[in-house]
Amino acid sequence: MKMLVALLLLLALCNANKVTVEESDGQCDYNLILEPRPHSVSILEFGAVGDGKSLNTLAFQNAIFYLKSFADKGGAQLYVPPGRWLTGSFNLTSHLTLFLEKGAIILASQDPSHWDVVEPLPSYGRGIELPGRRYRSLINGYMLHDVVITGDNGTIDGQGSIWWEWFNSHNLKYSRPHLVEFVTSENIVVSNLTFLNAPAYNIHPVYCSNVHIQNLSVYASPESPYTVGIVPDSSNNVCVEDCNIAMGHDAIALKSGWDEYGIAYGRPTTDIHIRKVHLQSSSGSTIAFGSEMSGGISNVLVQKVHLYNSLNGVEFRTTKGRGGYISEIFISDVYLQNIHMAFGASSLSGTHPDDNFDPNALPILDQITLQDIIGENITIAGNFTGIQESPLTNICLSNVSLSINSASSTFWSCSYVHGFSKLVSPEPCPELESSYSSSSTCFSLVNSYGRASAL
Ligand SMILES: *[C@@H]1O[C@H](CO)[C@@H](O)[C@H](O)[C@H]1NC(C)=O
Ligand SMILES: *[C@@H]1O[C@H](CO)[C@@H](O)[C@H](O)[C@H]1NC(C)=O
Ligand SMILES: *[C@@H]1O[C@H](CO)[C@@H](O)[C@H](O)[C@H]1NC(C)=O
Ligand SMILES: *[C@@H]1O[C@H](CO)[C@@H](O)[C@H](O)[C@H]1NC(C)=O
Ligand SMILES: *[C@@H]1O[C@H](CO)[C@@H](O)[C@H](O)[C@H]1NC(C)=O
Ligand SMILES: *[C@@H]1O[C@H](CO)[C@@H](O)[C@H](O)[C@H]1NC(C)=O
Q1: Does 267 map to a domain?
Q2: Fewer CB atoms < 10 Å away: N or C end of the chain?
Q3: Domain containing 121 — which CATH number?
Q4: Considering every ligand atom, which ligand is closest to the CA of 403?
Q5: Per-residue pLDDT reduced to its tens digit, 88-114
Q6: Which ligand number lies closest to the CA of residue 61?
Q7: Which residues pair with 345 in a beta bridge?
Q8: Are 230 and 213 in contact (CB under 8 A)?
Q9: Structural domain count, the chain
Q10: Considering the domain boundaries, does residue 193 fall inside one?
């Protein structure tokens, strides 16, 4: 019960509709106290062996099946002691805390027969990498609520190298699995852990509400193909804070479905708060929107972020056929260091799931504000490329100071974009030079998160 109260409290704090922010500048700012569950069992009681060789899938499945019976008794904790716990994919249950002790490492099996193959997500219509079905993630939640995955810096190691090789050599049978996926779930916390070497994504909440991701270290090799850190997808009320993420591809990517499938499913990603994160991306973007955004992405607040040693900083990607929108995005207090392209927005970016997409489904990019930004050693300040049929609108830059390196030939590149700027250096392209005073449509935040208003 205490657990539930603590969880409700934190989710209330995370949700601007339920709380007025008085002195702090963000909703993720709170002292999180998670009371222990009234019942706890160790994975050892289910015959698990932490030698890094024995397969423990059944131990995890049996333990979690047993813990289901505590759902109406305040829930229960599954304790994972120090050791190397090899496993294939398994499912979680509601009112569960999965706790990884210091030195506990959950190791994902590299044998694909230990991973089920499941139907694609309805908002994607197919696996994201290959047509057809996809591998189930290592740790799964389906239609759950009140679930915590935490620990004393225990580790979830995806041992992804084998999947990266199959991906690169075109030997995958199905789209690669992720480490943690929650589908149609709510009131989820993932905290105090290290994630290593995911086959593809690390944490994928899809069709979820009230997800809090805090204090994680998330790493994959810089060469790992299309590995992504955290992917809020067709989900609302997601907070990501105090995380260090370094990925082969995007560190954080916000998505909401793919072309005709995403449009038909119609569930947006909205009310997202990202703060106090250190992000690195070798071949993608530290913070990406899209390119799959057909259900829409709106009301996103990004604050106090450090983006470094990366190809791209913040990037908005979409293409004709997506439909949907990316709007009401507010990004402030950003420090960029050693980044090739600081900001990008392109309506010519991304592929289609099949030939049935509607080329007349034009994506909208509107009301994007970038404010209080400092950058060092940047090669391209910004590339804003809209399309004639649907230009980028209300792109607002305020107090942006980027120091451009000598490798640069173009500071800003703009087409089919309209926006406003003040105090921007280097001087932006003419399309963004309307003065702020004449604008009434720059997206801003007054008083608290979630309350958009004109500047
Ligand atoms: C993370 O760990 C710290 C230190 O043990 C603890 O105070 C905090 O409550 C934990 N946070 C979560 C969300 O589990
Ligand atoms: C895991 O959950 C899925 C539903 O998402 C279900 O189809 C599958 O049978 C479950 N597997 C086990 C081992 O319980
Ligand atoms: C972050 O997690 C580590 C363990 O992983 C813990 O020692 C530390 O206190 C946590 N910090 C916060 C702010 O929760
Ligand atoms: C957690 O462990 C990882 C490596 O296993 C380390 O890089 C990280 O600094 C640790 N985090 C904390 C908060 O102790
Ligand atoms: C500047 O950033 C680039 C990456 O865009 C990096 O390769 C280079 O080493 C950085 N230069 C310095 C002096 O840090
Ligand atoms: C800007 O982006 C567009 C579309 O993504 C691309 O075609 C163009 O080459 C880019 N311009 C620069 C200067 O990088």
Answers
A1: no
A2: N
A3: 2.160.20.10
A4: 5
A5: 999 999 999 999 999 999 999 999 999
A6: 2
A7: 316, 384
A8: yes
A9: 1
A10: yes
**Are the C-beta atoms of residues 163 and 198 closer than 8 Å to each other?**
no
Please indicate, yes or no, whether the overall pTM of this predicted structure exceeds 0.85: yes
Q: Around 309, how many Cα atoms within 13 Å sit in the side-chain half-sphere? A: 9
Residue 317 half-sphere exposure, CB side, CA atoms within 13 Å?
Answer: 21
* Residue 32, SS3 per DSSP: coil
d(CA 80, CA 60): 10
Residue 351 within a domain? no
Give the pairing type, strands 83-87 and 209-219.
Answer: unpaired
In total, the chain counts a number of residues equal to 455
Report whether residue 347 contacts ligand 6, using a CB cutoff of 6 Å.
no
Question: How far is residue 359's CA from residue 364's CA, in Å, rounded to a whole number?
Answer: 14
Domain assignment of residue 324, yes or no? no
DSSP letter (8 states) at residue 447: S
CA distance 14 to 302: 14
Other CB atoms within 10 A of residue 354 CB: 12
Minimum CA distance residue for ligand 3 atom 9: 192
Domain residue limits at 174: 2-249
User: In the structure encoding, which two tokens stand for residue 419, read together?
Assistant: 């926006």
Mutate to test the pocket of ligand 4, among 105, 153, 195, 245 (most ligand atoms within 8 A of CB): 153
Task: Label residue 3 by pLDDT band (50, 70, 90).
Answer: very low
Q: What tokens does 238 get?
A: 């997601």
